[in-house]
Give the backbone structure.
Amino acid sequence: AATLGEGRITGALSVKAGADRPFVEATLASERLDLRPLLRREGHAVAGGATAPHPQRSRKVFSTYSFDFSWLRRADVSASVDVDHLLLPRLAVEDVHGTARLEAGRLRLQPLTAGVGGGRLELDLALDARDPAAKLAASLKVEDLDIHAMLQTLWSSEPIDGLLNLDIKAHTAGASPAAWMAHMNGDVIAVAKKGH
């Protein structure tokens, strides 16, 4: 068992030597995993309890620095994850189940499912990093997300209510975040109901 953020993870890990790359097989599980302390957006703490400001950001919204996906070509991986309760800075999810497969620089997450605010989320993702211009394809569906219930789980008092449905399909290719955004194509359908 191991500790990550404010949660405990159990599972199994095995590594086998291969002709070209090692093969890693992992299963991870947790009853409650709170990653908010690790992902806070505030400045980092410094001596004396003060908070240091963020370093000055570039005026560009998306970075032009090239991706380094070389690590995706160093091993083949088969992994599964099961988390009963997962807390992120702006999202609370339950019953997280997913499987991932990495082979020769091609990563496939199919699918990742979870409960979100009383509704359901399903994510299917494929990343091909064999070439410098990495290719990404993703599909995200969210059904009947109760916004108020999710905010309550996050101890937020935002006066927002209603149900949200999302259906996003996107694909792109490029060697940097800026290139990905420039070449992004797809469809986004968002429907809110019973909201105020």
Q: What stands out?
A: DSSP finds two helices and ten strands in the chain. Residues 147-153 form the longest helix (7 residues). Confidence is low (pLDDT under 50) at residues 42-52.
